Task: structure prediction
Amino acid sequence: MKTSALAAAAFFAIVLHAAPARADWYVSPFVGATLANSAGLSEQARRLNVGGDVAVLGRSGVGAELDVGYVSKFFGDTSPFGGNSVLDVMANLVVHAAVGSRLRPYAIAGAGLLRAELTSTYTDLTRRVVTTDSRYNYLAVDFGGGVIVSLSRRFGVRGDVRHIHALHESSGVADAPDLPEYHFWRASAGIVIR
Result:
């Protein structure tokens, strides 16, 4: 929880610094796929990823972004964890440049929270089916880039590729599962609403 508060404080500090009166704000829902992940499951090479971004891009070429993404069945359909998902909430610094009147390439880097939710079902010695639900928060870092194409003053489209890497140490949870250090690439496309 401390990590989330720190990431949010850093994000808003960057936004306040990068938000002069003429800054460009946008909201961008996206859909994408995990291109590769380190969960160790070949069936899980690609999974649907959905989410959204809120960003402010200052005229100085520096901005800030809050990125939220969700992947269901990140560890696979038949993993020992049963039902599972990963949620990422990242605060990012954005460096961008306008190329003509319609193109804006950008690069991002930041940190935030990766939350793994796992459901395990097993049969104990008395042949009773036991289900356990666990949630674990990990500090994570990300980097990547993309391009925004303006279609009008208020709308555009965006393509994005980023790498999200969970740091292995769980945030103070003594009984964290023995998960591999995991990371993944995400490619996404979305609309941009200003």
Q: What stands out?
A: Residues 73 and 84 are 5 Å apart (CA to CA). The longest strand covers residues 129-150. The beta strands are 24-37, 48-57, 62-72, 84-96, 103-123, 129-150, 155-170, 183-193.
